[in-house]
Amino acid sequence: MTLNVQDSGRECWESSPCIDMHDPSSITSLPCHPAKSMCLETERGSGRHDHLQPVSVAHSPGPSPETPDVPSLRAEFFQVNLDAWYPRYLACLRHFLEEGQHTVAVQSLAAFVNIRLPYQRLPEPVNHFAGPSNGSSHLSLRPYIQRLIVTGNDMPAVLEAFFGGDWLAGVGSIWKQERLNYLFTAKSSGWASTKSAYDILPDEQTPFLRPLRGPSEDELRMAESRWSEWLAMEDWMVGPRSPW
To answer: What PANTHER family does this protein map onto (predicted)?
Structure first.
């Protein structure tokens, strides 16, 4: 598996330098072992016509079939079974803590985009997954996904190295949410404010920003729809005043 690491050079926006994590001529790497479980994270839907079951909530959209190596998840755009989500999320977290963060591939990319892995966070490093009743289960994967997205490194191969072979059904919903959030942040503020929003203080600032990697037309249309809903919210055009 090859992880294409994106740098910050404008001349490389279309084709960035590749660090082959499994090619000895590029960098020595330990193999990544995909987890067999899956997980889903949810958000509350913003559409007026979302009719949800008691065990389901709405969440943000993801890429269409046009995105390489990522199948369509249209059916999952608006409903997630919470009963199925939590154990799968824990399985994704387990892979990251037990395997992903201990590979050279993940360690080198984390260093490149300036974010500490759990085992590097002193004075309380997290080296292993200790179960749902332990503090390790409360570690958030979202900052790592955000950093991969804003630096243009959220390729399927990279996400698999971090979170396992079933990352799409696991952290895929978080990935979709954060891609939309990145579009919204860029639209509502300038470069400096956008970068600041993704900095982790005191010393894990985002080293550079890249345009959203490979957005599909469906993804952009969904973002436009959600943005329009937010503009309506700003004008109190909600509930009985909603234009939809």
So the answer is: ILP IS AN APOPTOSIS INHIBITOR (PTHR42087), PTHR42087:SF2
